[in-house]
Amino acid sequence: MTASEPSAAAPPRGPEPDPAPLGVDRTPTGHAEVDAGLQRLADADHLGVDGHLEVYEDVHRGLRDALTALDARPGPPPRQDPARSDDRS
What we know:
38% helix, 2 helices, mainly alpha
């Protein structure tokens, strides 16, 4: 490379600015596990972009676990319709 050719390297950048909160409202859902995940998202407001992935993966894991727990809980028994009878005696 000669002195007249432009450099392929990017110009040096200054220091990264401090992270700024996104200002996204987090409305409670009434489900403790989900609300804890929403609150955990606030942690990303104080991290640089390179730290967001860890927070997002942690929240995703928590939400997935909460949904899995819903599938594991037994629901109420099926409702019987008294007007409909399977008794054919």
